[in-house]
Amino acid sequence: MQNHDQSRQLQEQLQRCFSHKSAVVVRGGGSKDFYGRQQSADLEPFDVSAHRGIVNYEPTELIITARAGTPINEISRVLAEAGQCLPFDPPELGGVATVGGTLACGFSGPSRPYAGSARDYILGAHVLNGKGEYLRVGGEVMKNVAGYDVSRLMVGAIGTLGVILQASLKVLPSAEKETTLIFHFERDSALDFMNDLAGRPLPVNASCFYGDLVFVRLSGTEAGIDSAYRSLGGERLPSTDKIWSSLREFEHPFFQSDLPLWRISLPALAKPELPGEVFIDWGGAQWWLHSDADADEIRIATERCGGHATLFRGGDRTSEVFHPLPPAMQAMQERIRASFDPERILNPGRLTSER
Amino acid sequence: MPSNNFGFSDLRNISCFVSWVSFRHNRRAGMWLMGTRPAQFKKLTIIMSTSTQTNDKRNRLILKLKGFLPTTCILLQDQELVPYECDGLSAYRQRPMLVVLPENVDQVVQVLQVCSETGVPVVARGAGTGLSGGALPLEDGVLLVLAKFNQILELDPMRRIARVQPGVRNLAISEAADPHALYYAPDPSSQIACSIGGNVAENSGGVHCLKYGLTVHNVLQLKIVTIDGELLTIGSEGLDSPGYDLLAVLNGSEGMLGVVVEVTVKLLPKPEHTSLVLAAFDDIEAAGAAVGGVISAGIIPAGLEMMDNFAIRATEDFAQCGYPVDSAAILLCEVDGTEADVSAQISKIESVMTLHGATEVRVAQDEAERLLFWKGRKMAFPAMGRISPDYYCIDGTIPRSQLPMVLRKMNQWSKQFDLRVANVFHAGDGNLHPLILFDANKPGELERTEDFAAKILDLCVEVGGTITGEHGVGIEKINQMCSQFNREEISQFHALKHAFDPAGLLNPGKAIPTLQRCAEYGAMHVHNGKLPFPELERF
């Protein structure tokens, strides 16, 4: 495993950029270049990928600390050797996705509604703010209420509040066993069924709907899974089936379309009518939509159900790709950004257009 | 679901002792600060400022408040203000300029607008059970009490959410959800009395947080009012929302960023089955190692608590729960899930305990026995109160692997300081609550206790832990923040607060120390290996 500490060089580069007010594009493995708004081509690259390696991992602590450039699959491999995993199931994206990029984008896999998200598992981080200051926030312990939870705030901020250089994540034991059951349903009953499952004390760890099939992943002890299977019925999917990894890695045939890909985040039991083909994940809370319909049409349909829509991949990336915020909230978010990055040098334009 | 909680009266008992000692701590800090102690440290009696200027300001404020608040919602008289002069940290007392008890969100908005316009600081208060003085009033400030916001607005078993007002008690949510076989997971010890708004402010945990998370993991949406009187919705009923994750910073922000007026929490299905193992050890380090053993076996217990011999004896005398009194330590390890899952895990736990040298392993045979095993743990604090005139409870978190070493050190120091220490703590997540027993009437004993406690907290930070696992910084640990964070980090915290509250009117002086205070405290974070254990990472 490669182990390089580049924190000093990275800090010096950012301090230089701050003093020259020259903006940077923060980049790890580059697996999520497609995500967020298109940025100006003449920004200076800020490459975190060489800053890598596991800094601390003691399995009985249930915590791993790694530098931002460490690939997710490398982390998962090391964890698996000790019988543990990242419970939020992040995409590895061909082995290129890094810890820093995964957290910055806040990507979580199919287990998210049951096991929690990337932001739920971060315990602490070392971060460079937009002034090039090196901040240690959060900690390497399970419970810590000293100071604002700035490390969690970094998750999903796409590098616009700070550059994550190192993160400590809570990890959990891998399940003894996993089994996937399949059920035949049409869409509305599938949504009711998945919602009903989430309200019962069952070892469900993922559920999705595509075509006319609901897939339910059970995860736990062998005895627990067997008893859940007895009470649920359904057909057992062969363990060689790749439904969950193909969904997590965007490799499922559904994702092969050339149409813009939207991510629709919804409250429980929402059933919007959306203009295009959908793949429903997260037990109904996350819908993938291929559609070239007007952004406003998609956003209005989503908003009506209490959700928000992100132009996830493709389409017009010079427009707003994230769901617009109410003006008071937008103003608050801009003030927060200014508190971390007063010169707007971190990934300008990636999250929202610069005004 | 177990409710591993102390009764409210016990909690008050604890906080009383804790805060008393802490007050002494700060008196000492005050001496180091050489007269720069802020006004809220003064133990005031009935002295209200009599300066004309202050009175004018107060009168103008009252006049404005009376424009939209019923007179019954404004408390002005000394005898009305007395009950509000402290929270659970009762040795810090300060009578506020006045107390307001708004009845609806619109009134909260107007209170904050008026305070913002007139430059009057505001401290929000829920049930007042906090243990770090987060709701300590300010002499020249308004205490904004949210006690009248006590309604559960919506509880939907289908969507598994509860939308509640901030003054609703933590336990009341689970009670309301119970008929639907649902519950709200975070269960701080004070859950019978503490309010959900306060839980958000403190990011409260509980016995089950290793498995089920803290408040931040269980809150979906907040409505807050900013100091400018702007009502903002943060989060959503879905699993995420666009923009920065402000739920992350609001939870645990100790009332510094906004006033919470509505909370939407997620409800979880109650586990089908719960079971408890009691394991006894004749060596406390073996018990500590067994905690790691359980985790290594791939088990995440719903609760994992440890008690040492001293705590065992005291509680057995007090509660007669059948604890093995000759053991050096016991572990209480609870698992929940489906019946099949639980029985598989229980047999694994039994063998892990035996493997780590347990002298006795008992599985609670029925619900009555399970509750009996928990009873001792729940009675541990009052049991200490019976055998010692005073005790000091510490709230630090350490990496779990350091548990045996930290326990050994504490036992060494216990002899060195000639003070008994009882260990009762959340072993599963490394959150220590050592109780130092002392008698304040014996000359020198309090000072020795202070030194002992300081050594334990230092050790927590040195081994990579934190100064507060769950009680918050408030006013109590404001100086210790300077040891855990450096100048840039503290400045960043202030900048973040400034984004929400540019004039610094929300709960000023709490949670984040000023740089000046840290400089005077003289304990700024030292880099490049000048601290003990330089090889250890610090955050």
**What is the second-level CATH architecture of the largest domain in chain B?**
3-Layer(aba) Sandwich
So how many helices of chain A?
11
Largest sheet of chain A: 5 strands, antiparallel
Order of strands in the sheet with the most strands of chain A? 3-4-8-6-7
What is the CATH superfamily label of the largest domain in chain B?
A: FAD-linked oxidases, C-terminal domain
DSSP strand (E) fraction of chain A?
A: 15-25%
What's the CATH topology name of the largest domain in chain B? Vanillyl-alcohol Oxidase, Chain A, domain 3
Residues in helix, % of chain A: 25-40%
Largest interface: A-B, 92 and 96 residues
What does the overall shape of chain A look like? globular
Number of strands of chain A: 17
Question: What separation lies between the terminal Cα atoms of chain B?
Answer: 35 Å
The proportion of strand residues of chain B reads 15-25%
Q: Given the structure, what is the number of helices of chain B?
A: 18
Low-confidence stretches of chain A: none
User: Under CATH, the topology of the domain at 7-173 in chain A is which?
Assistant: Uridine Diphospho-n-acetylenolpyruvylglucosamine Reductase, domain 3
Cα gyration radius of chain B (Å)? 23 Å
> If you compute it from the alpha carbons, what radius of gyration of chain A comes out, rounded to the nearest whole angstrom?
21 Å
